[in-house]
Amino acid sequence: WLFRATAARAVVAAASRPGLSLGVGAAMVVAGPVLLILLTLTLVGVPLAVALVLMMVVGLAFGTVPLFTAVGWRALDGRGGVFGGFVLGAVAWRLIAFAVPLLGAVVFAVAMVWGLGAWACGAWQVRSVRSG
Q1: Cβ partners under 8 Å of residue 36, min gap 6
Q2: pLDDT digits over 93-108, tens only?
Q3: By C-alpha distance, which of 99, 105, 33, 20 is closest to 66?
Q4: Integer CA distances (angstroms), 116 to 10, 15, 29, 54, 110, in order
Q5: Is the pTM here over 0.90, yes or no?
Q6: DSSP 8-state secondary structure symbol assigned to residue 129
Q7: Burial class (CB in 10 A: 0-12, 13-18, 19+), 131
Q8: What 8-state DSSP symbol labels residue 100?
C-alpha cells in the first residue's frame, strides 16, 4: 500500500527485464555488506550503518515479493491480478520448499536476489518519472 507505484513497477521489472533485475540484485547483495563494514569504520557512518541494517531487514522481509508475484501473474496469464499472482507464486514456493527443502532454499535465495534487484529497478523508474 505504501509503495504502490514502486511495487507495480518492480513486478514488471522482474518479469520483463530479468537479467537487469538479477544483476542489480546481485550487486546489492555484494555491495550492501561491504558498505556496512566501511560505514562502521567511521564514527560518522555508524548511524548510516544502523539505517542500512534496518533496510536489509526490510529487504529480507519483502525482497521476494516482486518475483513471486511476477511468476504467479504469468502463470495465471494476468487474470488473477497482482494479488492473485502473488498468492499463487508464494503458494508454489511453499510447496517446493515443503517437498524439497534444499531446492526451496535455493529458489528462495535466487528469488531474494532477483526481487531486490526488481525493487531497485522499480524505484529507479518511479524516481525517473517523477523527476523528469
Answers
A1: 49, 52, 53, 56
A2: 889 888 888 888 898 8
A3: 20
A4: 9, 13, 9, 15, 10
A5: no
A6: H
A7: exposed
A8: -
